Amino acid sequence: MMEFADPSGKLTVLEIGCGTGTNFQFFPPNCRVICTDPNPHFRQSLTKSMAQNQHLQFDQFIVASGEDLSQVADASVDVVVSTLVLCSVKNVEGVLKEVCRVLKSGGAFYFLEHVAADHSSWTYLWQQVWSPTWKLIFDGCSPMRETWAAIEKENFSEIKLQHIHVPLQWTPLQPHIIGYAVK
């Protein structure tokens, strides 16, 4: 992640859908962190997580969806992180447009997302069966999004994307993508 720091060596990270701050432990020391999440009730857990991650400089917590990052200035962050978020946003393309808007030129969008399975697989069949109930139970989460296609359509100069299979037994969420895209 540090390869995307500005010339002075400072790194500004925006995490979309930060939740309770689970990813903070993986961020490099001394980076400046901006957190966004549409759920204002995460603030208390997030404050606890911030206290446990003294290696970071926390800038702000913004209550906002990924589709509306208007409180973050254009070309102001070096890295945007999204972990298991794009499955439940209303508009994946809208989020990616906002990611590109807030990223500095040469900045990176890191992602880990569960996605739709191969259409000829049993997993895909189960994703179709479970999808309506899954969305209802898990706050709009869709197990059938082809998120890689939306990332590939966005105006990134470089994309490193890998399809992986996560061993989550008895769920329709085994197919994932992991990688980064450079603006």
Automatic annotation (TrEMBL):
- Superkingdom per UniProt: Eukaryota
Query: What name does this protein carry?
Result: Methyltransferase-like protein 7A isoform X2
| This protein's encoding gene | TMT1A
The Swiss-Prot or TrEMBL record annotates one GO molecular function as:
S-adenosylmethionine-dependent methyltransferase activity
Q: Which InterPro entries match?
A: Methyltransf_11, SAM-dependent_MTases_sf, Thiol_S-MT
Stretches assigned to the Methyltransferase type domain: 14-111
